[in-house]
Hints:
Chain A is α+β, with helices and mostly antiparallel strands.
Amino acid sequence: MHEVSIAANLLEIVSEQCRKEGYRKIESIHLKIGRASGIMTDALLFAFDAIKTDSLAKDAVLMIDEIAVSGRCRDCGRNFTVEEEYVLQCPVCGGASFQVSGGRELDIVDMEVS
Amino acid sequence: MKVKVAAKILEANDRIALENRKIFDGAGVFVVNLMSGPGAGKTSLLEKTLAKKDGLRIGVIEGDIAGSDDAERIEKFGAPVVQINTGGACHLDANMISDVLDDLPLNEIDLLFIENVGNLVCPAEFKVGEDMKVMLLSIAEGHDKPLKYPLMFQESSALVINKIDLAPYVDVDVSKIRKDALSLNPGLKMFEVSCRTGEGLDAWVQWLRETAGKHRVS
Lengths: 114, 218
Ligand SMILES: Nc1nc2c(ncn2[C@@H]2O[C@H](COP(=O)(O)OP(=O)(O)OP(=O)(O)O)[C@@H](O)[C@H]2O)c(=O)[nH]1
Ligand SMILES: [Mg+2]
Ligand SMILES: [Zn+2]
């Protein structure tokens, strides 16, 4: 629901770096968005397109990698990923003791500039 | 050409949240970010807590999309309160809190509640400078909520299950709420209360007092 403020933060970070490093234009931006981050990628794309006009990123496209929720089981020691946005038990052994390690990402990886 | 960015999209917010936190710490204020879906009973819980505060100096920041109804309810208890209107935004962020810090007598407050915008999803993602997050769920919302909206349950230190007086009228399995919430967050502290009858509120206030007190000593 707050994809607009996420998009605004994103635009600010990339514009600032683009300006500082002396480039004129951002062509694409590569993001990692976790499935448990609460962000819907379609809504983010839509919001970004709406606010990017009049900026260094006005022609930029977002390339989004969706990151599945993943973790490591303390009982059987295995690493796993799940389809859901949450983990209730280890999908391998059913153990209830696990560490969730991925799925909450809202990260900018890199961008194509000119 | 390709350039590395390697940034978290919310790092600006996180940075401001940390600055807020330092100001709160400096003034000896323990801060609770209170979250729930619309109407679960956040303001009611604050009213009940204020009525039992017994020497604890409580302040409140009210976050709503519009209006000042909640701040007016709190003002009746003589507590320092500031209303923030987000003008449409579905959550409070660190900047909004930073903007109102001067409007509160922080040195005269032990415990500050920040009542977030009623929303079961977005507030959980934005740090505002709190020491802990507490969420409410009213039983009328249904027992499927922990698994449908896991993030807030995972991020919170405590879950207040409210409106238990409605149990005879709604088909809800409170033990499922507890079980799923605990699976998502094994350290979650849980309370069952009714802001209508007062049931369970003493345990909540007692825990709050201990938790805020521990903070001040450390
Ligand atoms: N039956 C019953 N009603 C309650 C209880 N707690 C709150 N209510 C009622 O629920 C409604 C919403 O309560 P509020 O305290 O305004 O809820 P809120 O979470 O602050 O709402 P927003 O700030 O608008 O999101 C009010 O009509 C309250 O009187 C309870 O324990 N039992
Ligand atoms: Mg309220
Ligand atoms: Zn296992």
